[in-house]
Structures are given as C-alpha cells and as structure tokens.
Amino acid sequence: MTTQNLPMKLAEAVADKIVEWGLIPWGAKTPVACLLPEYDTTHERGLKVAVIPSNITTDSRVARGVVKQIFATQVTIMKYLPDGDPNEANDALALAERLTALFSGADIFVGDIRFSVSAVVMFGASEVLWNGDYQIDGLLKQETLAPADVFSSSFVVIATRYIVN
Q1: pTM to 2 decimals?
Q2: 148-159 CB burial, b ≥16 within 10 A, e <16
Q3: What average pLDDT does the segment 96-116 reach?
C-alpha cells in the first residue's frame, strides 16, 4: 500500500518491524496498518494485530532551528475466545509483553527518516469485548455475525523525530 502521509507510513513501518522480529505466531495474519481495525467472528478465530496511525502529532521547538515531532502509534492485538476462556488469550498477552519490551528504545525508519521510540504506554486495561451482532469495532451491525467474546489489548508506541531547519 502506497501512502503519502507520515503517520500512516510510520504505522506501516511499525507493522513491518513486528514482522521483522518474527513474533507473529504461525497461522496468524500479518500485522496490518489501518485506520479502523476489525475482527469478524464469522471468519476469524486466530490472533490478529492491527497498527493504527497517530491522528495527532505534537510539534515543539527545542532549540534554534530544531523542531521535535512526536507521534503516537497504537498497536492492537485481538484474539477470539471460545466460550470466554481466558486461557485462549495467553498467546495474545505474551505477544503484547514481547512487543512492548522490543519497542522500548527501538529505532524505526521510514525511508531515511529515523524515529526513536521514547516510550511504550499501555492504552488501558485489556478487555474482553462481547461481539453480539456487531463487528468488533462496534460500528457495523449485521445479523450474520456470530456472537463471540474477543480479547483486545492495546499499547501505544511513542516515537520522536527531530527536524532541523
């Protein structure tokens, strides 16, 4: 996918980094950069990773002619839980733990632009979402979707770059 905006390019680079580290379990889909992650319980059962670009950046002048730009990219891990069995979420929890450790202090490149990860922040408590008649994003109601529990856990990768004028 070819994109023009930097937040989406950074999200794609974060997804590529996850693939590069080889942490996605066999049978899981490759992480995808997207604006709205979906988990369709009529067709999906395994682990799914979505990377959501930052919709807000923080720019600040840190020295004469130097601007610090901060991006927050969200990584969401989703997993189907048959009958709400929490043991089925173990691989998702283990993946989140490994990824947060690897992203801490990492450098991510978008072309020749270097982003340094300054922090990794959990996006809130992990949760189990009951699907019912809704897509897991809660926006699309369809009668054909299967009722299910879906584990969802997110963290945010805070990446910084410096622009010299």
Answers
A1: 0.82
A2: bbbbbbbbbbbb
A3: 94
